[in-house]
Amino acid sequence: MNRFLAGGGDRETDMRTPKILLIKPPLDDHDRPIYDLIVPLRKAGIDPIWTGLQQPWSQIVKTALEEDADAIGVSVHTGDPAILLGKLKTELERAGLSEKILVAGGSGEITLPDMQAKLAGLGYKVFLSGDAVENIGAYIMEKFRENQKCSVSITEHFESRLSRHLLAKHITRLENINLTLVPPPKKKSFRVLLAGPAGAGKSSLLNKILEKLELREIKIGVMLCDPRGPKEKGAFLGDRVWMQERTLSENIFIRSFSQLSNYSRRSVNFLKKVSDLFALWGADITFLETIGMGQESAARLGELADLFIWVALPNETDSMRLMKGGAHELADLVLLNKIDKEPSFKAELALKQHFQNPYFKVSAHTGEGIDEVCEFILEKIKNNPCG
Fold this sequence. Notes:
The chain has 387 residues and is α/β, with parallel strands linked by helices. The chain is built from 13 helices and twelve strands.
């Protein structure tokens, strides 16, 4: 886990949590084994990333690059494992990602000793259904620690424009507290913060907004924050599953982070530095989606945003809730989401009485109101250009 986002940690002894990208081959729809792995991996102190089914290899590799995942976990239940995993390894090497920890599992041919020997020759560690799930986490942690000790630091050199690959690596160096200085970009990225309670549909809304904005040929950085629980060490980085189609765009870069429900000055400074790295990549806009929030004030969040958007549900927005304190008081704009499912007139009345800034009625499902939100954001950028 990123130590800045944890709000603590010792500079000399703390170590970030490794990330594993869990994938299925493009035509394999058997995702149950993936879900069975997520909680055990969290318990082992690993952040699992899951982005959904039926993705081409190019999309999977681009996700691995942007997330700078430490490990790739492949579940194979159909097809020839040697051909499928050989193809993945070739694509990873072509993208400059040959250092990844590779693990595989599944059923069918992959259980045969000869096939396991072939996969071992390709660099994959194979785990089968009879193996203890804890062994997978232990193996990844062991290899991760070895890689951390042997890793060679990339040069702390910034060109006028960062490549996608260098951007991913520099963000990881920030997580490791090895990057001591991020030079101020000539032009900052306009920061849009998307906050709201869990289940309000922030990720789905952001996906719709990105879908519209990418048509404008705007370069966009996206930071997705998912929570660690009070018991497990790792976090399930699952927000990408709602916007994985956007990975196909060369003008969008998405990165996931795990965090505690803590917006300390240290964590806010970290997120600002990531935003500056996005600007050095050329991002015109950086979106930050927070973890689900409630009545906590998180006052420092206001320091992150050029535009603070609060996503709310109609049946959970009323005068009583709005009169109480909370992060919604920082908002420049409220989005009433899921209006295709819930009546919004009571929520609108409450907003008119207790919220002085604009609001829009939107639906991530039907797309209603998304064009108006995008125009609002672009108008804000036009009137508040970042220096």
